[in-house]
Write a structure and sequence with these properties.
Elements (H helix, E strand, L loop, with lengths): L12 H10 L6 H8 L6 H13 L3 E3 L5 E3 L6 E9 L5 E5 L10 E4 L14 E10 L2 E10 L5 E9 L2 E6 L8 E4 L10 E12 L2 E12 L5 H9 L8 H8 L10 E2 L6 E4 L8 E7 L9 E8 L10 H9 L3 E2 L4 E2 L4 H7 L7 E11 L5 E12 L2 E4 H9 L11 H21 L9 E5 L5 E6 L4 H23 L6 E3 L5 H13 L12 H11 L5 H11 L4 E3 L23 H13 L9 H5 L1 H31 L6 E10 L2 E6 L5 E5 L9 E3 L4 E3 L6 E2 L3 E10 L4 E9 L25
Parallel strand pairs: 5-7, 13-20, 14-21
Antiparallel strand pairs: 1-2, 3-4, 3-6, 6-7, 8-9, 8-11, 9-10, 11-12, 15-16, 16-19, 17-18, 19-20, 22-23, 24-25, 26-27, 26-32, 27-28, 29-30, 30-31, 32-33
């Protein structure tokens, strides 16, 4: 920590910046307050100063709300050549990881004659000269030892070996594969490659290191995504042996819940069932209209113990990864689909929380237990919803009809509490890829979301809150699921966009979740609302795992921790162990070693979550492009989901498949970009904005890159969203509605 200043009171901006610069580690507002002896009444002014420094790019606020000097590109840095662009010029990036998110564009200045041009995979030490707006010229000082660069693409056979067309949209140069380096790849196969130092006939060279088969082959898209994102798939022999050697848990001191009709509710294709629920009216005379709830979660901690082979494997993965056609599990199948799966009519160990809520959904109390349960039924969302709606009752045993009614009664109370606290409830559809029996893509459809989905979600959220509250009350380490406040610049951009539509976001400088909720309620289900939902989503921060509690902005909760899925999330397993330690429920709780590494573990599992999301999205995009490749030339109804200088992003109505309309395919003439209104258009021309309904024609489908290219084909009848500029003054607000 920097030396404390002699003066006291609110510092000047230069003094504040100097203090942050001289600190050996990131500092929080509390650190600054103590250093300058800032009074409570001046803390708001301190926050304004920090916001100003952040907006000016002088400091950066980390996820734990601590401040550090903003990353500045050094005058001398190590650069890596990652690809060649369409003109054969090198695409360069800073090699150090700390610059990974920095928006820079670096142009490599040509070397003196006699030096060979750097190729992808090369690393150089270069002097950087700023040219403004994040652009730099780089002059090579010396070459460094080259590291082979790995990339993926489609192999094309030639008479002298082959070419690989990179799958990455960033790389526009093909790679030549010498005959001796093809690895036996066949024309059209997806392959992994490693760059070579030499260039052949002016092209960068590479060798094939792994083959995945043709993209049309079932499973190829997922295998490629797994390899691209370095997702671990193989368990060690020790981990597999340990899982297969697991046995039924002993009853011991566990509470006996086997007579309580707990049920699991999941998708039709689910194979592991790690949560079960139960509800009943609360008979306590002081809680009229209230409910008793139980959430029982598989007791993974009794099988996966700290430091053992299973634990090391689970930590490495961080979470299960769900591809359209397969799952890469966090735990071996003997556990995830066996002893840790809450199968009907089989005794299973669990960690359970019993909760009492009042008629308005507010929690009155809760308690955790280690128990033995026996699931009364394995139900699905569709079956439960049909039983509730009385449209079909075949899937729910008659004996459980009252239990289903109680679950929905408790859910309605929880839903009331959710609305009251102002949760950001975005209605954004998800797509689902359906396969034929032989593994080909049959269709792409939008997922149907029922109240049965929301019911389970609300039960799980409440259980997660209870876990965080209990650990905090017991002074136990907690791996919080934190969702920080949105960045001020993003909120400003959203307000600018909303202003062009005659809408506003309340809250001023201190925007809270309820202000977003109020905006969403005003939109109701009007055409164009979904585009604003997307804009609100882009405003939000990314949720991460951290031992420091920052609250959960989106859910409008002061404390929140993932507790309900220890089969598929390592974070939940840590929370289980912390509860076991804090409540004295056994000897298989947290170790001191784990506690000391909580910050490191949080960073790691946040990374594995991002890795999983990237892999899942890549596989889905490729499968969608493969399916759409048969429809090149066809015209579809679509909605504009993004507007940038270079074109429009669109999503098709029927399938949810998404792609790009390049600016060049919008029509003749010049289109001007209005960043504030998120529109592309010009005088006397057609204009395109976020949320507009249009018709598009598919021009190109690239399954290897997972990309679709469209051109405009006219407007739909409801071509524009109902919210438009020019209606701000005197405009009647839309009716206030609550989503069902």
């Amino acid at each position: 920590m920097a030396k404390r200043p002699q003066a006291t009171g609110l510092p000047t901006e230069p003094e504040l910046l100097a203090f942050i610069q001289e600190s050996a580690r990131p500092v929080g507002r509390r650190d600054i307050g103590r250093a300058f002896h800032i009074a409570a009444g001046e803390r708001r002014a301190l926050g304004d100063m920090l916001d100003a420094l952040e907006e000016a790019g002088r400091v950066e606020r980390e996820r734990n709300r601590r401040y550090t000097v903003a990353n500045r590109v050094p005058s001398v840095a190590v650069l890596e050549i990652v690809a060649l662009d369409q003109d054969g010029d090198p695409v360069v990036q800073l090699a150090e990881r700390r610059f990974a998110g920095l928006a820079t564009r670096i142009r490599l200045v040509a070397e003196r004659r006699g030096g060979s041009a750097p190729a992808p995979g090369d690393r150089v030490l270069a002097r950087l000269e700023p040219r403004g707006a994040g652009h730099y010229d780089a002059r090579i000082m010396r070459r460094l030892e080259a590291r082979p660069s790995r990339f993926f693409g489609t192999f094309r056979a030639t008479a002298k070996g082959g070419l690989v067309e990179p799958a990455s949209r960033r790389s526009r140069s093909d790679f030549l594969i010498p005959a001796a380096e093809t690895g036996g790849a066949a024309d059209g196969e997806l392959v992994a490659c490693e760059t070579l130092r030499e260039r052949i006939r002016g092209l960068p060279a590479a060798r094939v290191t792994e083959r995945f088969g043709a993209l049309e082959r079932p499973g190829a898209a997922s295998l490629l995504a797994i390899a691209e994102n370095d997702i671990p798939t193989e368990f060690s022999d020790a981990a597999v042996s340990q899982a297969e050697g697991a046995k039924a848990a002993a009853m011991g001191k566990r509470a006996d819940l086997r007579d309580i009709p707990l049920v699991t509710i999941d998708d039709e294709d689910a194979r592991d069932f790690d949560d079960a629920v139960w509800a009943a009216p609360d008979e306590a005379p002081d809680n009229k209209g209230g409910w008793r709830l139980r959430v029982a979660i598989a007791d993974v901690a009794c099988y996966v113990r700290p430091g053992e082979a299973l634990d090391l494997a689970a930590y490495e993965r961080g979470n299960s990864v769900y591809f359209p056609d397969r799952v890469v599990p966090m735990l071996p199948e003997a556990l995830s689909n066996g002893w840790c799966s809450l199968k009907p009519d089989e005794d299973r160990p669990c960690l359970t929380v019993e909760m009492r809520i009042d008629a308005s959904g507010e929690k009155l109390d809760h308690r955790f237990q280690r128990a033995m349960m026996r699931s009364a039924a394995r139900l699905t969302y569709n079956v439960v919803q049909a039983a509730h709606d009385d449209t079909a009752g075949d899937g729910v045993p008659d004996a459980l009809s009252g239990e289903i009614a109680a679950l929905y009664g408790a859910y309605q109370a929880l839903r009331t509490a959710r609305v009251a606290r102002g949760t950001i409830d975005l209605d954004l559809p998800e797509r689902r890829i359906v396969f034929t029996e032989d593994g080909a893509v049959a269709r792409i459809e939008k997922r149907t979301r029922h109240d049965s989905h929301r019911l389970i979600e609300e039960f799980m959220i409440l259980a997660n809150v209870c876990a965080a509250e209990t650990l905090e009350a017991r002074n136990q380490p907690c791996m919080y699921r934190v969702h920080d406040d949105p960045a001020p610049d993003r909120v400003f951009a959203l307000r600018e966009y909303l202003g062009t539509l005659g809408l506003s976001l309340a809250g001023g400088q201190a925007v809270r979740p309820r202000h977003f909720a109020q905006l969403i309620n005003r939109l109701g289900d009007k055409p164009g609302a979904e585009a604003i939902h997307q804009a609100i989503l882009r405003t939000q921060s990314q949720a991460v795992y951290s031992p420091e509690n920052l609250g959960h902005f989106g859910l409008a909760l002061r404390r929140y921790a993932h507790f309900t899925s220890p089969i598929r999330r390592y974070s939940d397993l840590l929370v289980h162990r912390a509860l076991i330690s804090g409540l004295g429920l056994g000897k298989d709780g947290l170790t001191d070693g784990e506690t000391a590494r909580f910050s490191e573990i949080g960073t790691h599992i946040s990374m594995t979550e991002r890795r999983a999301i990237a892999g899942e999205r890549a596989a889905s995009d490729r499968l969608a492009a493969l399916f759409m490749a048969e429809h090149v030339g066809a015209t579809f109804a679509a909605r504009i989901t993004g507007v940038e200088r270079f074109g429009l992003f669109v999503e098709l109505d029927d399938s949810g498949a998404s792609g790009l309309i390049p600016r060049s395919m919008l029509g003749d003439g010049e289109f001007r970009f209005d960043e504030r209104a998120r529109r592309l258009g010009g005088r006397g021309k057609d204009s395109f904005g976020l949320g507009d309904r249009i018709r598009v024609t598919l021009v190109e489908a690239n399954p290897a890159a997972g990309s679709l290219v469209f051109r405009t084909a006219g407007r739909t009848r409801t071509q524009k969203a109902p919210f438009r500029a020019g209606r701000v003054k005197g405009r009647k607000r839309p009716a206030r509605r609550h989503r069902r």
